């Protein structure tokens, strides 16, 4: 296959390049990243005193084919001794909260949680599950997450639990996100079994077969719910980069923004600010909007479809407090849009990963996530937003939700800026 140009040096582009370099058919892999650093949203701050703060994802789930595959790669790049596992029995796995009606409510778990009435829900969740089996299968190719859940499980679950979940996972509006794209397991369960419950019990169809390596087998044996790395999640892309450099097939180019791509005979021409790169194939790991701006004019339909895919801007505020300041112990809490459209949720980082605290001192680390699909509504233009205003909003949320009146000993604001457009589901494309 000769030379492959990979556009984008986030975790998607790096993982793609990693597998390409393993193929004997590939002679060269050229990775083009527009910024000064690789890794994308896998971004960690490691302070000189030993504390670690995550500005993007802070934990990775080991379950399923994707989870096994990720752990296999972690093992391949030599990070198995850096793993920080969090088991299902850990308090961070068992205790997750919703902030509704000005109060924290622990999400129900286990059989007892399903059988009892638990605030903020008006009745036991078992009623919704029993009713779900009788709901007819949809004939539509796709629908919003909100429509799907409210149809099968009721509006209350959709408006509180699922709305909050979509804000925490996707920073998106469940009324506009595609269930087929965001929750394919649920979509397939209905399509194949006619019921989510039956789909969960009987299986919703075959998936990719990924043989587990030693690390993935260990995750099952020890019942991991999620995991991180001792020096932060950014250690993962850093290890992949080191692997690529040792392969002698890969060329890594930071500060190499792609201006346009053109078909040529043979292959493609990739135009950069300071030159042109030739490749037999191109694989894009760019955001949809970014790819739409570099495609040749001969692809008008694809360009339009890419431009119609929405992205959201998310503000991430990391906070460190002296002492133990949390009124509850758990992974964190999410906030439904009906409660506060600006605030997505708060993660209690010190609970699942105390290893990232400053050694030799009792501290509490929190991450406040804000904006998402509501960023412009709450904070205005992402390019003009005041970071002090974001910090103030985060501190007010911590005071109101957790009763923490003391000022933080350290803080950092990161704004992940992407393109905001009207959201459309995959069915619209």
Description:
- With 429 residues, the chain is α+β, with helices and mostly antiparallel strands.
- Mean pLDDT is 92; it is low at 419-429.
- Helices cover 34% and strands 23% of the residues.
- It is built from 16 helices and 18 strands.
- The chain has a seven-stranded mixed β-sheet with strand order 7-6-15-16-17-14-18. The chain has a four-stranded parallel β-sheet with strand order 9-2-1-13. The protein has a three-stranded antiparallel β-sheet with strand order 10-11-12, with no helix packed on it.
- The protein has helices at residues 11-22, 64-76, 91-94, 110-115, 125-132, 145-153, 155-170, 179-182, 184-193, 196-202, 214-221, 235-247, 288-292, 300-307, 375-379, 387-402, and strands spanning 2-7, 26-32, 44-46, 52-54, 83-87, 97-100, 103-106, 224-229, 250-253, 258-263, 268-272, 275-279, 281-284, 313-322, 332-334, 343-347, 363-372, 410-416.
Q: In terms of quaternary structure, what is this?
A: single chain
Record the strand order, biggest sheet: 7-6-15-16-17-14-18
**Total number of helices:** 16
Cα distance, first to last residue?
31 Å
Structural class call reads alpha+beta
If you compute it from the alpha carbons, what radius of gyration comes out, rounded to the nearest whole angstrom? 23 Å
Strand content: 15-25%
Largest sheet: 7 strands, mixed
Strand segment count: 18
Q: What is the average of the pLDDT values?
A: 92
Task: Specify the helix fraction band.
Answer: 25-40%
Low-confidence stretches: 419-429
- Shape call: globular
């Amino acid at each position: 296959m000769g030379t492959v140009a990979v556009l984008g040096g986030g975790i998607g582009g790096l993982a793609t390049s990693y597998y390409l370099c393993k193929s004997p058919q590939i002679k060269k892999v050229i990775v083009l990243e527009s910024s000064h650093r690789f890794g994308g949203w896998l971004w960690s701050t490691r302070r000189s005193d030993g504390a670690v703060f995550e500005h993007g994802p802070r934990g990775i789930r080991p379950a399923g084919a994707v989870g096994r595959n990720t752990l296999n790669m972690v093992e391949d790049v030599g990070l198995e001794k850096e793993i920080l596992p969090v088991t299902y029995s850990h308090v961070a796995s068992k205790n997750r909260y919703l902030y509704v009606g000005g109060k924290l409510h622990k999400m129900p778990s286990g059989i007892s949680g399903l059988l009892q009435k638990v605030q903020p829900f008006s009745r036991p969740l078992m009623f919704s599950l029993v009713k779900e089996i009788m709901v007819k299968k949809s004939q539509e190719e796709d629908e919003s997450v909100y429509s799907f859940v409210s149809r099968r499980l009721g509006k209350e679950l959709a408006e509180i639990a699922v709305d909050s979940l979509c804000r925490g996972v996707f920073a998106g509006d469940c009324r506009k996100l595609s269930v087929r794209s965001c929750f394919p397991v649920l979509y397939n369960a209905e399509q194949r079994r006619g019921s989510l419950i039956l789909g969960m019990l009987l299986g919703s169809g075959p998936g990719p077969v990924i043989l587990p390596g030693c690390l993935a087998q260990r995750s099952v044996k020890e019942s991991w719910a999620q995991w991180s790395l001792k020096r932060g999640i950014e250690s993962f892309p850093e290890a992949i980069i080191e692997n690529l450099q040792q392969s002698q097939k890969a060329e890594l180019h930071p500060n190499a923004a792609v201006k346009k791509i053109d078909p040529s005979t043979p292959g493609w021409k990739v135009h950069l600010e300071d030159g042109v790169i030739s490749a037999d194939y191109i694989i894009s790991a760019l955001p949809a909007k970014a790819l739409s701006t570099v495609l040749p004019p001969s692809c008008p339909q694809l360009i339009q479809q890419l431009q119609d895919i929405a992205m959201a801007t998310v503000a991430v505020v990391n906070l460190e407090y002296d002492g133990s300041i949390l009124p509850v112990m758990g992974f964190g809490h999410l906030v439904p849009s009906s409660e506060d459209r600006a605030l997505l949720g708060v993660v209690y980082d010190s609970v699942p990963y105390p290893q990232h605290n400053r050694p030799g001192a009792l501290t509490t680390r929190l991450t406040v996530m804000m904006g998402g699909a509501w960023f412009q509504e709450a904070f205005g233009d992402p390019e003009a937003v005041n970071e002090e205003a974001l910090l103030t909003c985060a501190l007010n949320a911590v005071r109101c939700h957790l009763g923490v009146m003391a000022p933080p000993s350290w803080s950092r604001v990161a704004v992940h800026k992407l393109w905001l457009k009207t959201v459309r589901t995959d069915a619209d494309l």
